[in-house]
């Protein structure tokens, strides 16, 4: 068994095994920075400014904002304000101190029990029309569908 090396950050296997082919470069970089800032320091969540996040991944703030929105919508990351209230919509994240975390499903297991990445991507597209604006991937069924 390989032990964790000092000065390293673990990345959830699902990122590499299932999502890598479907994530944009910017989305992957954001996930890696969130993993570094949270699990890399033994935290569940951490405050990261949009400007710092953009600087760390060498992208414009508007590009980062769009990618964060997609990752939140897909349930890959979660965003919170200082009071611990989840910020689900893009408008709720405006003018807020944002705390980021990898969702529990990302940290613990595959969202669809080992299904290929096309499945969760298709389900996410179907779930985009959810009234709440939040997607919850907690079962093998697509959210808000019978599939």
Written description of the protein model:
The protein is mostly helical. The protein has one domain: Winged helix-like DNA-binding domain superfamily/Winged helix DNA-binding domain (Arc Repressor Mutant, subunit A, Orthogonal Bundle). Helices cover 39% and strands 7% of the residues. The longest helix is centred in the first third of the chain and has 13 residues. The N and C termini lie far apart (39 Å). The C terminus is likely disordered.
Describe what is shown at a glance:
This protein has 147 residues and is mainly alpha-helical.
Q: Roughly what percent helix?
A: 25-40%
Main-sheet strand order equals 1-3-2
Computed CA radius of gyration, to the nearest angstrom: 15 Å
- Quaternary organisation of the protein chains: single chain
Largest sheet: 3 strands, antiparallel
CATH level 1 name = Mainly Alpha
The tally of strands reads 3
Approximate shape:
globular
CATH architecture title: Orthogonal Bundle
Helix vs. strand class: mainly alpha
CATH superfamily: Winged helix-like DNA-binding domain superfamily/Winged helix DNA-binding domain
- What is the name of the CATH topology? Arc Repressor Mutant, subunit A
Strand portion: 5-15%
**Structural domain tally:** 1
Question: In terms of per-residue confidence, which ranges show pLDDT below 50 for 5 or more consecutive residues?
Answer: 109-121, 124-147
Mean pLDDT: 75
């Amino acid at each position: 068994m390989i032990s964790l090396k000092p000065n390293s950050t673990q990345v959830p296997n699902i990122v590499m095994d299932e999502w890598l082919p479907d994530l944009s470069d910017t989305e992957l970089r954001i996930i890696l920075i969130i993993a570094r800032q949270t699990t890399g320091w033994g935290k569940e969540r951490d405050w990261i400014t949009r400007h710092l996040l953009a600087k760390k991944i060498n992208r414009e703030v508007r590009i980062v904002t769009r990618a964060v929105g997609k990752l939140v919508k897909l349930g890959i990351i979660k965003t919170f304000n200082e009071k611990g209230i989840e910020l689900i919509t893009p408008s709720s994240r405006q003018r807020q101190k944002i705390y980021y975390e990898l969702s529990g499903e990302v940290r613990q297991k595959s969202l669809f029990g080992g299904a290929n990445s096309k499945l969760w991507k298709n389900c996410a597209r179907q779930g985009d029309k959810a009234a709440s604006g939040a997607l919850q991937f907690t079962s093998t069924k697509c959210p808000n569908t019978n599939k």
